[in-house]
Structures are given as C-alpha cells and as structure tokens.
Write a structure and sequence with these properties.
Elements lengths: L1 H9 L3 H20 L17 E4 L3 E8 L2 E3 L2 E4 L2 E7 L3 E10 L7 E9 L3 E10 L17 E7 L1 H11 L5 E4 L4 H18 L13 H9 L13 H7 L8 H7 L3 H7 L7 H14 L1
Length: about 280
C-alpha cells in the first residue's frame, strides 16, 4: 500500500488521470448495460420508425423519406409510401459515400430497382438525438440506437452530393435474382423487428456496412469495419463487375451527374439516373 501512495506522490497528475479513466470506464459500462429505446427525441431525419408489411409475394413500407435539398440544407420534408411485389425486383445497386479526409471510412447503402424504372433505397444509420453528433468512438459504447431508413433515391443521393457536398459512387451488383430477393426480404424483416424492439448501433459490429453484409450472408471481412474499402472487397468477390477495380470505380462516380439531376423534375429522377447507370455499364 505504501508503494502505491508513493507512486501517486511522485506523480501528482496520476490520480487525476486515474479518476478520469475510471469515470469513462464506468460511463461506458453503464451505457453498454442499458437497454436500447424507441422513444428518444430524435434528430428529425431519423425520427420516424419504418412500418413494414410483409406477405408472401410482396411488401409495403411507410414512411419512405423523400426530402429535397439545396446547398444550404433541406428545402422540403416529404414522406411517401412504397408497395412492390418481389417479382418486380430487377437489380440491386451498391452506393458508397466516402467520408472526407479518410480513405478507410465511408457510408454505404443500397438501392433496389423495380420494374418501371422505380427505385427504393435503404440506409442503415446511427440514430442520433436532437443536438447529438455522430462519433465512431462513442459508437462502440451503445451511444446510438440503430435505424433502418427507407427512402427515395433522390433523397438519399442528393442529400449527399448537394447538401453535404460528398462524393457518391453507385455500383451495379452481379447477383442472382434469388439472392436479390432474399437480401431484400431479410432487410425488410429486420426493419420490421426494429418497429417494436430497438437495437444499438455499433461502430464495429452493427454499422451501415456490416448490417448489409450480415443480411447477405457474407463471412466477416475487415472491409466491414474499414468501410471505405467495401467496394473493393465486393469487386474482389465478383459482386461488383468490371475488368478492373479502377475501371469499375471510375465508372461508378456519379457525384456530378446526381448534383445536376437535383434541378430536374423529381418524377424524372429514377428513370434518368438508371439510364445513365446503364449507359456507363454498357461501355
């Protein structure tokens, strides 16, 4: 015991550092032990819990976020609903939004393409409260609940390129029709579960990318944490097609096109986006 007191006496700042470490550890343990909730004062974009109705041949989901944006921020907050048959599903597009200042961090989401050039998107988010900022560090300690947000392609893509001024890459995926439908159904089922049973977001175990990967049945890979490499990982598995990753990556850069498309009539967004994606894919 004397040695311990002597150790503290020789280094007066050590007790302060130890106290800070103890407080942080107790706070982290308290957060980890707490239960996820559905009834917090959520940041408006993440405020609505999706309601899914599933049946054997199709589904309905509401609300579907369809916000509009300018450089200055949101210009309209609108919601719609979507209903599709599973046999209308045509393609799945993988979207990567690199985070500025890091080659290893990115947000990822999916666009489901249905017949008639209609798109429905899913983004998996850390569900922040009003006034709360995202932190990858605190995301390790149950600081955020998990949100499955369904929305229009126009909302998801222009939010990123126009309002946030981020790059966006949209990749085709080369998977079977059976795999497409299984992925969509699994994600809808997990959305349905979140309606009544909240879950925590986790930077390593339940982030935007590995939630998608788990739904697809992929084995764990470093790219599910180092999410900025997730497109390269999918290319290495043959899920993103192309002669080389460099070619596929360059072809998928839709930043400028989406930004310009923000000025087009909203009803034309899906068809014009898909026409451009197909044109690039055919080159």
């Amino acid at each position: 015991m004397r040695r311990i007191f002597a150790w503290f006496g020789c280094h007066p700042l050590r007790p302060a550092f130890l106290a800070i470490a103890l407080i942080l550890s107790l706070g982290a343990l308290a957060a980890i032990a707490s239960s996820a909730r559905l009834d917090r004062q959520w940041y408006p974009y993440l405020g609505r819990t999706a309601d899914v109705t599933l049946h054997e041949t199709g589904f309905a989901v509401t609300p579907v976020s369809d916000w509009s944006y300018a450089r200055e921020g949101e210009t309209a907050q609108a919601y719609t609903e979507a209903a599709f048959d599973f046999d209308q599903l045509r393609n799945v597009w993988f979207v990567l939004e690199p985070q500025p200042g890091s080659q290893l961090a990115a947000h990822t989401l999916l666009l489901f393409e249905f017949e008639g050039d209609r798109l429905l998107g899913l983004t998996i988010e850390a569900r922040r409260e009003v006034g709360e900022e995202y932190s990858a560090l605190w995301g390790l300690f149950n600081a955020f609940e998990l949100a499955y947000v369904w929305g229009s392609a126009r909302d998801f893509l222009t939010r990123r390129t126009v309002m946030l001024d981020h790059d966006v890459f949209v990749y085709p995926t080369d998977i079977t029709n059976r795999e497409k439908r299984a992925l969509l159904r699994t994600l809808l089922e997990r959305t349905e579960q979140l309606e009544t049973r909240a879950r925590y977001y986790n930077t390593i175990f339940s982030n935007c990318t590995n939630e998608l990967a788990k739904a697809a049945g992929f084995p764990w890979a470093p790219a599910f944490v180092l999410t900025g490499r997730s497109d390269e990982y999918l290319f290495s598995r043959g899920i993103i097609p192309g002669e080389s990753f460099a070619q596929a990556h360059a072809r998928s850069d839709m930043t400028d096109y989406i930004t310009a498309l923000n000025d087009a009539p909203p009803a034309q967004f899906d068809a014009r986006l898909l026409a451009e994606l197909r044109r690039r894919e055919a080159r």
